[in-house]
């Protein structure tokens, strides 16, 4: 620790008796001074002793430094001598190396021609053996030296290829051509390769393949390898999975055997596609091509999908530079004959299948589709009958059937969805929008025209006249189902058709076609407003049958026990059902539009109905109760105009019971002030006491 003088003195004083640092002891300055003086003397003695020791060590250090410097000088001299010797040795080594390189070049210049001469001599020796017709050399007779024999035969074959044909025949060198020893040895090598492959000896296969690389039969060796690889590889029913497993296994092995593994693997894949897969696809498709279009299309889609999936798996292998184009050509070679006329088969099947689904449905309903007039005399008669109530013939009785089926719609949409999926997969990219549009046209024809439009036309023709009694209004059910179906149609349009045509000119055509369909259906739905006439007609029948003149002019004014009339109860019940049906059948702004029209007509009916009776005081009270109930019913419409009309009608009914003296005050009230005086007068005239001079005087 660093020396601190203050702390050192404190410790010294603390240890000294009488130093004053320890509690309970009297402070003795003399004793402390004496202790300090003695301690200073001790420190001086210690300092002198240490100083002498330091001087001695300094002298020793100086002596050793001189000795070390002398030794370093001697080592430097020795190092210089060694460096000079090293330079001399390096120069000598360089001189010797130069001589050795020169000698090596001279030896190589002599040895290379000598080696060539030796090889030529050996070839001449083997050549003589072929000329004599007796192969005695060990290299030809020993099967274990087939590699050396192959090298010799290859060289002799090249020599024979360079000789003129006449000389070749003169020297009997024909054995080196294909029918001779060359061919025999080539076959022997291929047989050896085959045997090694069956034994699973990869090293031997690699060795033989390297020898055959310089022979013409190398490609045959590859063919044999590919053929043997496939033996026992396709034993299951799933040829695509077998092919993927086979290629995966061969990919690991081919690099250990051949010097060009990507070429061999590509040739194997080509063989699998052109032989195994093409044969399998043909067997699966030709069986149903002419007899069963549905199964044919399903098989075509499934096989093409599985083939492209296999191609995607094979993309991970090294097949050369442009493997995408290579695999695409292989797929096209298999399916080109089936894809050329795919869309015609698709449209034909979709047309027949859709027609069968619709016909099966109508047959289940025992319904024979009839031609519903959409123009001409028949349409004119129907429209005149519905709007004027003229007896131009009865409406078509549908017996409560809407002729719309969720099951039929789901089947048609499902068939079309599958057709879109097949179209996306099987169509050429350039033809995809056009083909998708044709499928969409089929859907429009059978779903929208043949099913929805027919049901709307039938529903319109089945709307009863407004004077019909107990008429069943099934057209709203038709509207409800048609609305639901069209939402499904629109969903398929967005989910399955739009992705296929979104970036093509066909998009505008499809959107326009869809718009035309919507407008056409909206026109027919607008025609269905005649249903409201039937509703009003039903209300008229209820009021005519249930409302009695005595309801509002009872014989006993003091004994009226009902809150509102029976006719009011039945009309309100009927109206509430129709309002609920309209809300369930339509959506969006159409609900408010139809309910407003119905509400206005409902108000007009009640207004005109009330003016057919005379009212006593108690009868007027009962009329007010009826109108209050009608007003509650009007609240279900949730239309401000309709509720306002019934509020005004309720205020008008107050004129039936108000005291004569208060008539002017009531007529000038907020709800009646803006009404025409004739309307007010018409209601006052309904009072049984109207002819009294007092009432007439007050209202005048």
TrEMBL record:
It holds the Pfam family Sec10_HB. Residues 40-78 form a coiled coil. GO terms for biological process: exocytosis; Golgi to plasma membrane transport. Residues 148-699 form the Exocyst complex component Sec10-like alpha-helical bundle domain. Keywords: Coiled coil, Exocytosis, Transport. Residues 29-137 form the Exocyst complex component Sec10 N-terminal domain. GO terms for cellular component: exocyst. It comes from the Eukaryota. Belongs to the SEC10 family. This is Exocyst complex component 5. The gene is Exoc5.
């Amino acid at each position: 620790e660093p020396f601190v003088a203050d702390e050192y003195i404190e410790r010294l004083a603390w240890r000294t008796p009488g130093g004053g640092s320890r509690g309970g002891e009297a402070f003795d300055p003399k004793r402390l001074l004496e202790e300090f003086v003695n301690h200073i003397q001790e420190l001086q003695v210690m300092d002198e002793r240490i100083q002498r020791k330091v001087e001695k060590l300094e002298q020793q250090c100086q002596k050793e430094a001189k000795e070390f410097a002398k030794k370093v000088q001697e080592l430097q001299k020795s190092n210089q001598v060694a460096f000079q010797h090293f330079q001399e040795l390096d120069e000598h080594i360089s001189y010797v190396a130069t001589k050795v390189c020169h000698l090596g070049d001279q030896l190589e210049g002599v040895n290379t021609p000598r080696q060539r001469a030796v090889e030529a001599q050996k070839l001449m020796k083997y050549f003589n053996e072929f000329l004599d017709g007796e192969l005695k050399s060990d290299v030809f007779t020993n099967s274990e030296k087939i590699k050396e024999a192959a090298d010799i035969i290859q060289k002799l074959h090249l020599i024979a290829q360079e000789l003129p044909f006449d000389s070749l025949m003169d020297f009997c060198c024909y054995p080196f051509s294909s029918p001779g020893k060359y061919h025999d040895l080539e076959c022997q090598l291929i047989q050896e390769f085959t045997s090694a492959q069956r034994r699973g000896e990869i090293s031997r296969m690699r060795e033989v393949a390297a020898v055959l690389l310089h022979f013409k039969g190398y490609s045959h060796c590859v063919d044999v390898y590919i053929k043997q690889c496939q033996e026992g590889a396709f034993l299951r029913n799933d040829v695509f999975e077998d092919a993927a497993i086979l290629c995966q296994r061969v990919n690991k092995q081919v690099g250990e055997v051949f010097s060009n593994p990507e070429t061999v693997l590509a040739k194997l894949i080509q063989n699998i596609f052109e032989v195994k897969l093409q044969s399998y696809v043909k067997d699966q498709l030709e069986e149903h091509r002419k007899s069963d279009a549905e199964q044919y299309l399903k098989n075509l889609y499934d096989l093409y999908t599985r083939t492209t999936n296999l191609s995607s798996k094979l993309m991970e292998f090294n097949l050369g530079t442009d493997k995408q184009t290579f695999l695409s050509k292989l797929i096209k070679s298999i399916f080109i004959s089936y894809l050329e006329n795919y869309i015609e088969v698709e449209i034909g099947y979709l047309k027949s299948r859709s027609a069968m689904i619709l016909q099966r449905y109508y047959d289940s309903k025992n319904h024979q589709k009839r031609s519903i007039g959409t123009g001409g005399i028949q349409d004119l008669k129907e429209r005149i009958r519905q709007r004027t109530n003229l007896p131009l013939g009865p409406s078509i009785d549908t017996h409560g059937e809407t002729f719309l089926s969720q099951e039929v719609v789901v089947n048609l949409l499902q068939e079309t969805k599958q057709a879109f999926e097949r179209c996306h997969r099987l169509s050429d990219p350039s033809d995809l929008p056009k083909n998708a549009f044709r499928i969409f046209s089929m859907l429009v024809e059978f779903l929208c025209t043949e099913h929805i439009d027919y049901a709307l036309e039938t529903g319109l023709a089945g709307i009863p006249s407004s004077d019909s009694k107990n008429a069943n209004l099934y057209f709203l059910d038709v509207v409800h189902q048609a609305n639901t179906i069209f939402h499904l149609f629109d969903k398929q349009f967005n989910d399955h058709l739009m992705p296929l045509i979104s970036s093509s000119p066909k998009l505008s055509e499809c959107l326009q076609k869809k718009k035309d369909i919507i407008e056409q259906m909206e026109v027919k739905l607008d025609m269905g407003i005649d249903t409201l006439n039937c509703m009003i007609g039903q209300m008229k029948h209820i009021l005519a049958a249930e409302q009695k003149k005595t309801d509002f002019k009872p014989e006993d004014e003091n004994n009226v026990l009902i809150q509102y009339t029976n006719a009011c109860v039945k009309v309100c019940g009927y109206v509430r059902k129709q309002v609920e049906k309209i809300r369930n059948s339509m959506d969006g702004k159409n609900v408010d539009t139809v309910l407003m029209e119905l509400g206005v007509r409902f108000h007009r009916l009640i207004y005109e109905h009330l003016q057919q009776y005379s009212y006593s005081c108690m009868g007027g009270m009962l009329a007010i109760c009826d109108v209050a109930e009608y007003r509650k019913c009007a609240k279900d419409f949730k239309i401000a105009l309709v509720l306002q009309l019934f509020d005004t009608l309720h205020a008008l009914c107050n004129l039936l019971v108000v005291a004569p003296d208060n008539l002017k005050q009531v007529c000038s009230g907020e709800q009646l002030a803006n009404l025409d005086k004739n309307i007010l007068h018409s209601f006052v005239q309904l009072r049984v006491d109207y002819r009294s001079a007092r009432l007439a005087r007050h209202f005048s």
